[in-house]
Design goal:
CATH topology of the largest domain: Spore Coat Polysaccharide Biosynthesis Protein SpsA, Chain A
CATH superfamily of the largest domain: Spore Coat Polysaccharide Biosynthesis Protein SpsA, Chain A
Largest sheet: 6 strands, mixed
Structural class: alpha+beta
Shape: globular
CATH architecture of the largest domain: Alpha-Beta Complex
CATH class of the largest domain: Alpha Beta
Number of strands: 6
Order of helices and strands: EEHEEEHHEHHHH
Radius of gyration: 18 Å
Amino acid sequence: MKYVKLKDYDFIVKLDADLTLPCDYFEVVAKCFKKNPNVGMCGGRTFVEKNGNLVLERSAKYYLGGCFKAYRKQCFLEIGGLKPVLGWDGIDQMSAMYLGWEVKILKNLQVIHHRPTGYETGQLKASYKLGGLSYRMGYDLLLGLLRAISIGRSKKPYFLTGLINYVGYIFSMIKRDKKIVSPDLEIFIKNFQYKRIKKSIAHYFLSINSLLEL
C-alpha cells in the first residue's frame, strides 16, 4: 500500500472517521512511545453504545483495534506499511511482534466506536470473509475451528456466525486461496495462537483446582 512519504515524523496513525476520541488521545500516545522505545504500536480500546451505556467492544485481549492504530516510524517502515487486504489489522500486529516490537493497549484511553465491527457488511457476510481470512493467514484446521467457535459464541446470530465462519475457512482451503503472510510469519502466528490456547487451558485447570480446594 502506498503511504505518505514524510521524513520528519515520530509516529503515524491510521484513524477511522466513525470514532470519538478523548481530547488527550494523541498526547497519551506520544507519551507511550517516548516512555518505552520498544513499543512499535499502541492505541486505546473501543466502546460501543448499548441501551444508553458504553460497553467494551469484544475482541481478543492481545488485539489492538485497527480503527485507531498508532505506529512508531521505525516499526511502520519495518513492517512495510499496511497491506491493502482484508485482515491488514491482524497482519501488521503479528508482523510487528514477529520483528520483536511490543504492542501496547492503552486501557485508560476510551474510544467510542459509532459503527461496530461488522455493521457495514452484516455479521454473516463478515463472518464468512473472516473464515477465509483465517486460512489465508495460515490457521490450520483446528485453529480455524476454534476461531469459528469463538465467533459463534460472541457474534449474533449466535452459532450461525460461527458455522458460516468455518464454511468460509473450508471454502478458502478447497480453493487454495493465496496466503497473505510469509511462511515464517505463518509459523509465528500458529505458535502464538497455540501458546494462547495452552495458557487458557492451564488457567482453566488452575481455577478448577482452586475451587476444589475450598
